[in-house]
Amino acid sequence: MIPLRDPMTSHTNRRVLLQAAAGACAWPLLSSSSHAQSAEFKLKLANNFPATHPTNIRMKEAADAILAESKGRVDIQLFPNNQLGGDTDMLSQVRSGAIDYFMLSGLILQTLVPVAGINGLAFVFKDYPTVWSAMDGDLGAHVRAAIAKVNLHTFDLAFDNGFRNITSSTKPIQTPADLQGFKIRVPVSPLWTSMFKALGASPASINFSEVYSSLQTKIVEGQENPLPLIESAKLYEVQKYCSMTSHMWDGQWVLANGKRWQSLPPDVQALIAAHFKKAALAQREDIRRLNNGLEAQLKAKGMVFNYPDIKPFREVLSKAGFYQEWKTKYGPEAIGKLEKYTGKLA
Q: Does the pLDDT at position 322 exceed 50?
């Protein structure tokens, strides 16, 4: 479920980290370009990723290219790292128009658009080719159509947040029994809560902006995230063990305030859409390569890795009625589009 090792990893990691450092140093909230003062369209883009995450590196590149190609007409200002609030706050802001673009996991968007969380069903995607076939195909189109009904415009390609793994400050998670009563942070999403309750854990819904402090103060014992986010958010400082469960794949949609998007001229829409697509494809490749090297880097920083057999976890979920519950909630049309790529669910 994790991409194959890549001999280019070390070179690529150095390149990405150098880009990250450069990007982080050059990111005032206001654009550094002299064109920005006279921009016809000043737009805000926010997310919860650290400034050094590949997502923000690529979106900064996109914003710079849009500013240059529009000859200063379109200035997209980036607000990374929860600068405009937690996920719940920023979702409200993009709906009201206070933020123009917001990047959000479909599993959190599920609180507003239920079907948006379907990609997070536990253990349904076996690998990245299956993920991208589904999310760039009929399943993704079905989700975007549902999002449009709440007056949010969604760009065609999702960004990769990655396959998620469980970390802990107290013990490795090797079997479902290790999750009994385990206090784990999950995003504010009913699917996450349902999954970990079915596995016997005690999930606590906490926005990502509060994850580090919640782990540091032992409000929760553990959390679950993809390796790139574990590294860029420095969660290895407050977590000892990483269990490679790859229990779900998570991506982020770029959401736009629908009214604001429709008010933009067609040429501006086309320019933004083209560069956001380019950024998404480049970010996916960054994450693929980072995944290949981050395990070794995190081990060097003190994390201890283990590799559970996922079959017992699936069996527990199935016996608990998890899959049947969510098949009913998502409905036959959406489940049919998912199963087109994944095969029949348990």
A: yes
